[in-house]
Amino acid sequence: MMIAGVILAGGKSSRYGKPKMFESYKGKHFYEHSLDALKANHLSPLIIATNHDLLPMFQRKDVQYVCENDRHTYQGPLYAITNVMLHEQTADWFAVLSSDAPFITPEFVRELITFTAHNGVDAIVPIQDGRRQPLFALYHRRTLKVMQQLVENGERKIGLLFDRINVLNPTFSKDDKVFININTRQDWLRQQ
């Protein structure tokens, strides 16, 4: 079984005011915490899903970059994951993490990967405090056709995918900091 590690890093960061994935925490950019958590679990390939505007800002050489089509920039996570799956043909699973989650850990990724042993599961999407966390999840390649259909129909909400596939929802503590993502400067100030 091959698991690719994917960082979603193509958003506008409009609420933050600048590309938030390049903010620093403990001497690393936010996106690097997610990337290093995937790398520590020996996932391969490691992929950053971004756009052509942000691509020059990334400095890591140990990853592949998959850019959105110029006509489809800022289409959201559903489009980005679909695009990655179309580009990466060999992986069975795709471990997807947000680029704005500086508290992600290798242990969290390792725990999520253990759930891939469940037969017939198409996606592993954690639940924390009653809410699904689709940007901290694993998606099997067999979800690609459904994702493509949604994208082709102009759908952008990743939640629509979960009504059409077999999803395992492991529950995590509401106090788990792993799921904290930074959307605004105030969010980040509260965490420091």
TrEMBL record:
Top EC class of this enzyme: transferase
Annotated residues for binding of Mg(2+): D100
Residues annotated as domain MobA-like NTP transferase: 5-158
GO MF entries: GTP binding; metal ion binding; molybdenum cofactor guanylyltransferase activity
EC number of the protein: 2.7.7.77
SUPFAM superfamilies given in the database record: Nucleotide-diphospho-sugar transferases (SSF53448)
Cofactor list: Mg(2+)
Ranges in a coiled coil: none
Binding site for GTP: L8, A9, G10, K20, D100
Gene Ontology, cellular component aspect: cytoplasm
Keyword Magnesium part of the UniProt annotation: yes
Primary role: Transfers a GMP moiety from GTP to Mo-molybdopterin (Mo-MPT) cofactor (Moco or molybdenum cofactor) to form Mo-molybdopterin guanine dinucleotide (Mo-MGD) cofactor.
Domain notes: The N-terminal domain determines nucleotide recognition and specific binding, while the C-terminal domain determines the specific binding to the target protein.
Protein name, entry field: Probable molybdenum cofactor guanylyltransferase
